[in-house]
Specification:
With about 525 residues, the chain is an alpha+beta fold. It has helices at about 1-35, 40, 50-70, 75-95, 105-120, 125-145, 150-205, 225-230, 245-255, 295-335, 340-370, 380-395, 415-440, 470-475, 490-500; strands at about 210-215, 220, 270-280, 285-295, 375-380, 400-405, 410-415, 445-450, 455-465, 505-510, 515-520. α3 packs antiparallel against α4 (about 75-95), α4 (about 75-95) packs antiparallel against α5 (about 105-120) and α13 (about 415-440) packs antiparallel against α15 (about 490-500). The longest helix is centred in the middle third of the chain and has 55 residues, at about 150-205. The chain is rod-shaped, with a radius of gyration of 46 Å. About 30% of the residues are buried.
């Protein structure tokens, strides 16, 4: 309602300003005609002096009103009413002191009444017609009494009065219709504006990145999710498409039926999948780009994978574990026999060792298949890691040297604490083992920090072992791949799967100073999992 009343005020002020320009123009014409007219015609005036005063006052008042408007004065309805009434009185004074209705000045009143009804509207417009009619008729009656006019002039004045009322009623009806149309247009414009704001809020709060770009890659609009996925700082506005995304847009323009390959908006984020659609406009067309975080898709695929793996391992547990247990038990009994020859004893030890290794593989697979859906929590990583190190060393690894290096005081990360505990158990255990093999020292450093560009937390597990060569990197996270003859090859694979279940990343970073470094990159803290 306040916006509606403001629009009405602005319309009234604008109409009053335009009408005042008209009155100043008429005043200048009247003053010019006053000093350019034939002296013989002045003798017919009832009072030439007061006629001149009325004309000058008419021009002076409206010029003064014009200066007030230029100075920023915003007239209200009562100011407009007083101004129009004063104008009508001055015109009536001109008619009285001049030659009456025969001079044609009475026709000016028609315009004044019409303008007053447009500006004021409502019952005030009819009041103006009444004031104008009384002024014209009364001054003509006075002139007839003073013998400066006759009955015909009074009749003409009465006709003018009727014209004034007819003009007021006609303009009033038109004004009401126009006002109704204006109000309806304002309400529709307000509804459209509210819908636009609502759509803008919905688009900005969507988790899917949405970008509207032109055919050359210029960005017209991008929501917050798109800026976050592309690692664009909130203080900056995305103006052009990144090179990788622009390249995929060009591929799609060349072949719309081809699905583009995923790309990384940032080295520390999961790959993004871009989908394109044409956005038709009245002139030309824009491209609508949808950016989807493949971390979500990977998480859903991970849950399906775990469900399928659960059904598979249930059969493995039944079909393999029981015979394997029997073989292991038989090997243990053979080793306890005093009559066992050394070659047979060596063979029994081989059977027992490999049975134990196979049982470890089954245990790892079973632990993965029994994994529940991740329940991420916001963790204070430094405090959480301190507790983890205490529990880890208290569990029997007392000779382990595990250092914690925080790069920032308070670092928050969203992760399932049980999953994170299992991942770090694997990574820290590997790091301690390889460090001891290389340097005879069980040492691991846990570096906790935050990526400046994206605000994502990370944990680096650094060791002083031999590191990973390039050939091994291509198969590092594959199941059953291991560089340790005694390992199962499922630890890193399982850790990678658990990270993806929490929309995190597990990567290996090459260190120039030697050793190995595994980095856990947490999802953005503002992203809901």
């Amino acid at each position: 309602m306040s916006d509606l009343s403001t629009d009405v005020e602005q319309t009234t002020n604008r109409l009053f300003r335009v009408y005042n320009h008209y009155r100043v123009t008429v005043g200048i014409i009247l003053v010019s005609a006053l000093y350019l007219q034939n002296p013989s015609s002045v003798s017919q005036y009832l009072s030439p002096f007061y006629f001149e005063v009325a004309v000058i006052c008419y021009l002076a008042i409206h010029v003064f009103t014009g200066f007030l408007l230029l100075a920023g004065f915003r007239p209200e309805l009562r100011h407009a009413m007083v101004s129009v009434v004063l104008e009508l009185l001055l015109i009536s004074a001109m008619l009285l002191c001049g030659t009456g209705v025969s001079s044609g000045l009475g026709n000016m009143v028609v315009i004044s009444v019409a303008a007053g009804n447009i500006i004021l509207r409502g019952q005030l417009g009819t009041l103006l017609a009444a004031i104008a009619s009384l002024g014209v008729v009364s001054q003509e009656i006075y002139r007839m009494v003073a013998q400066y006019s006759d009955v015909d002039d009074v009749f003409r004045a009465g006709i003018l009065g009727v014209v004034y009322f007819a003009t007021a009623l006609l303009v009033k009806n038109l004004s009401i219709r126009i006002a109704t149309s204006e109000n309806l247009a304002r309400k529709r414009a307000q509804n459209i504006l509210e819908l636009e704001r609502l759509n803008h809020q919905i688009i900005q709060r969507m988790l899917t990145g949405i970008i509207v770009a032109d055919e050359k890659g210029g960005v017209r609009m991008a929501n917050q999710a798109a800026q976050s996925l592309l690692s664009v700082d909130d203080s900056h506005e995305l103006t052009t498409l990144p090179e990788d995304l622009l390249h995929r847009l060009q591929e799609w323009q060349n072949d719309p039926s081809k699905k583009t390959t995923p790309f990384r908006g940032s080295a520390n984020r999961a790959p993004l999948q871009a989908n394109f659609a044409i956005l038709q406009k009245e002139e030309g067309q824009d491209i609508l780009i949808f950016l989807e975080d493949t971390g979500k898709i990977a998480q859903q695929a991970q849950q399906l994978k775990l469900a399928s793996l659960g059904r598979l391992t249930a059969g493995i547990a039944h079909e393999i574990r029981n015979p394997l247990g029997a073989a292991s038990h038989a090997a243990q009994l053979l080793l306890e026999s005093p009559e066992l020859t050394p070659p047979d004893k060596q063979m029994a030890e081989i059977i027992l060792r490999h049975a134990t290794r196979m049982n470890g593989i089954i245990e790892n697979v079973l632990s993965l298949s029994r994994r529940k859906v991740s329940s991420p929590q916001m963790l204070s990583l430094i405090a959480w890691l301190t507790d983890f190190v205490c529990d880890y060393t208290a569990a029997g690894t007392r000779d382990a040297e595990i250092e914690i290096l925080p790069l920032k005081k308070d670092i928050q990360g969203r992760f399932d604490p049980n999953h994170l505990n299992q991942i770090l158990n694997n990574l820290v255990g590997n790091g301690l083992r390889y460090s001891k093999q290389e340097s005879a020292r069980s040492w691991v450093k846990l570096v906790v920090g935050e990526i400046e560009e994206t605000g994502q937390a990370f944990i680096d597990v650094i060791d002083i072992g031999p590191g990973i060569n390039e050939d091994q990197l291509n198969h590092l996270f594959e199941p059953f791949f291991t560089t340790d003859p005694k390992g199962t090859g499922l630890g890193l694979y399982l850790s990678k799967e658990l990270c993806e279940a929490n929309q995190a990343q597990l990567d290996y970073l090459t260190r120039q100073e030697g050793g190995g470094c595994f980095r856990i990159t947490f999802p953005h803290p503002k992203r809901a999992i």
